[in-house]
Backbone:
């Protein structure tokens, strides 16, 4: 046989095995010979009998064995003979080919522990399992169950006896009269030393119990539980006042209907009495401190005709703060219920240790945090970028930063090691945003302070506090014309002296501009870019300027208060005052614009706190509240989320006053 490819090349496979001619060749059966010849003859007709496609691997193996043995040479030798013997009938005859499997070779056999439910053995295995389960259930008393015991060697037992003295028990009794008890109680220690020892032993037991009690009281878990219990009690006690502060309805106890009805009736009676008193004292109230224009509209209902007033809800004060003067107040930027209050005296002879306390609405009777300072606190403010940081300025010129999240009162950073620290009292301190237009986490802050040494300083909060001066405030003369000789005498002293800085306030929109009030009564508009020259100087006060405040809505206007007993309204484009407000002959120590109304501001002088409404009157405050005879007001602060005003006094109290019956706020 020869096999040719499509190009005519001979690709007949060559046998690898050459049989020995001397070996006898077994004769093939007729069936295999015919099959082999038929396969060879049918190679020219691959589509007629696809033997290799229908046959399995074993058929191929048999064929390869058939052709690769000596029979292959025999087929070649008898090719012509087979071709001659086959006829057309043989070619058309059907040939049957049988395929059989070879013997399976087992390399690894592992008996399975499970049987498929579809197998033949499944029924038998299930029956065996059922028989075993039944046998286990009937195990006690079953004949098929046999229990065998194995004998083991036990250790020798030992008995150990201990001899001791016999315990002797006796019963004794005695009769005691009342005088025996009296004599035993009043006997001296010298007559009965054994009783004195017993008393000392009893005292020792008491001391141990006291130590245990002290350990319990100082434990962290007990302190935390007391903290939450105290807050719950305070909220229950101050619920009506806290509800009024937040402008929420007052809750009543549904379990006590009698008290509720009595309380409601009492409130109705109080309302009726209040209306009667208001009608009777209408003329007196007009003449006293309520401006007549508020009650001018006669078409209003009796409820609408109730005049505006200040009602005190509670006061932040405790034994720790009593006797300290409130110097400054600041709300937390992140938590509107957290208030920081600084306590320190303003006079040199009145100086003592200062305090910085953090008060919460959840406990108006005791501060959440108390930071003790060696010197009086004169200014403080919360950070907005890091709400847990509280900056504190002191009378000796130091600046300190505390962490209100920490329960410890240690200083986080201070300016004691700074070479450029202030040498005079820090009268005001504030965190100022560098770019108010930046939102989210990109917002940055800088800490600014002003001191009596005449410097406006920016502090860098790093591993330690260090600073640089934004402005050194120099003394400026008045605009009055002076003689040449007077100018010559004063020129030398004015060049070397600096004016003490009292207050400052940055522009609401342009943080590069700020106002600085001085002790000589002048207000300077300055820029952070220029350190040597004022942009503008506003002259109008005749005493130290205690506070300046930009208008939150009309950013071209600002207020100032002074020791000359006046409050002045300015326009930044005009060096002369627009309006001057004077009500009482007392120093005006603090002012603040209302965050809700463009025409309302509060002022605190030594004798009373005043609420000015420019839409009502330009000559007298519509609402005022007098201070106690023993104290004076020192600072004011509006609440950010409610109609309340906080007023600090010289006795260490911060009164929370509710503004009632105010007209609708105006922001125009």
Residues:
């Amino acid at each position: 046989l020869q096999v040719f490819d499509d190009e005519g090349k001979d690709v007949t496979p060559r046998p690898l095995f050459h049989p020995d001619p001397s070996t006898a060749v077994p004769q093939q059966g007729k069936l295999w010979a015919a099959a082999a010849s038929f396969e060879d003859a049918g190679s020219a007709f691959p589509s007629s009998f696809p033997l290799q496609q229908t046959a399995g691997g074993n058929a191929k193996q048999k064929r390869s064995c058939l052709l690769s043995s000596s029979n292959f040479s025999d087929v070649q030798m008898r090719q012509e003979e087979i071709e001659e013997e086959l006829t057309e009938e043989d070619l058309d005859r059907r040939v049957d080919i049988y395929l059989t499997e070879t013997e399976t070779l087992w390399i690894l056999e592992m008996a399975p522990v499970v049987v498929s439910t579809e197998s033949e053995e499944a029924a038998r295995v299930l029956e065996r399992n059922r028989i075993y389960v039944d046998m286990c259930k009937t195990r006690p008393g079953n004949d098929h169950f046999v229990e065998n015991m194995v004998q083991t060697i036990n250790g020798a037992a030992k008995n150990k006896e201990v001899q001791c003295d016999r315990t002797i028990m006796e019963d004794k009794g005695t009769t005691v009269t009342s005088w025996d008890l009296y004599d035993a109680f009043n006997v001296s220690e010298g007559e009965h030393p054994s009783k004195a020892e017993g008393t000392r032993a009893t005292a020792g037991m008491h001391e141990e119990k006291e130590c245990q009690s002290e350990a319990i009281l100082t434990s962290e878990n007990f302190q935390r539980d007391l903290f939450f219990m105290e807050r719950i009690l305070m909220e229950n006690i101050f619920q009506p006042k806290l509800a009024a502060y937040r402008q929420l309805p007052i809750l009543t106890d549904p379990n006590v209907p009698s008290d509720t009805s009595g309380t409601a009736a009492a409130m109705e009676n109080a309302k009726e009495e209040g209306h009667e008193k208001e009608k009777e004292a209408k003329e007196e109230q007009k003449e006293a401190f309520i401006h007549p224009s508020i009650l001018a509209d006669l078409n209003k209902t009796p409820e609408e005709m109730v005049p505006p007033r200040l009602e005190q809800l509670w006061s932040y004060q405790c034994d720790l703060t009593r006797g300290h003067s409130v110097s400054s107040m600041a709300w937390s930027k992140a938590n509107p219920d957290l208030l920081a209050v600084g306590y320190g005296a303003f006079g040199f002879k009145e100086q003592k240790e200062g305090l910085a306390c953090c008060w919460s609405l959840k406990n108006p009777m005791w501060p959440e945090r108390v930071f003790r300072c060696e010197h009086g606190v004169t200014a403080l403010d919360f950070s907005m970028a890091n709400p847990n940081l509280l900056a504190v300025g002191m009378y000796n010129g130091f600046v300190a930063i505390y962490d209100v999240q920490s329960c410890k009162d240690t200083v986080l950073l201070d300016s004691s090691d700074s070479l450029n620290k202030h040498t005079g009292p820090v009268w005001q301190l504030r965190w100022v945003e560098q770019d108010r237009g930046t939102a989210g986490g990109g917002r940055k802050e800088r800490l600014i302070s002003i001191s009596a040494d005449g410097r406006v300083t920016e502090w860098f909060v790093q591993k330690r506090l260090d600073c640089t001066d934004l402005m050194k405030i120099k003394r400026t003369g008045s605009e009055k014309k002076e003689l040449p000789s007077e100018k010559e005498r004063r020129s030398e002293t004015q060049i070397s002296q600096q004016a003490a800085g009292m207050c400052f306030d940055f522009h609401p929109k342009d943080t590069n501009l700020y106002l600085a009030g001085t002790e000589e009564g002048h207000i300077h508009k300055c820029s952070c870019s220029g350190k040597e020259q004022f942009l503008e100087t506003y002259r109008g006060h005749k005493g130290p300027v205690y506070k300046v405040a930009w208008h939150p809505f009309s950013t071209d206007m600002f207020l100032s208060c002074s020791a000359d007993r006046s409050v002045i309204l300015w326009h930044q484009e005009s060096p002369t005052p627009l309006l001057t407000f004077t009500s009482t002959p007392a120093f005006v120590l603090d002012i603040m614009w209302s965050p809700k109304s463009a025409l309302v501001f509060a002022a605190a002088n030594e004798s009373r706190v005043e609420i000015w409404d420019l839409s009502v009157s330009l000559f007298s405050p519509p609402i005022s509240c007098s201070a106690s005879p023993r104290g004076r007001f020192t600072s004011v602060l509006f609440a950010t989320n409610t109609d309340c005003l906080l007023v600090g006094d010289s006795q260490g109290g911060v009164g929370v006053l509710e503004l009632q019956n105010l007209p609708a706020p105006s922001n125009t």
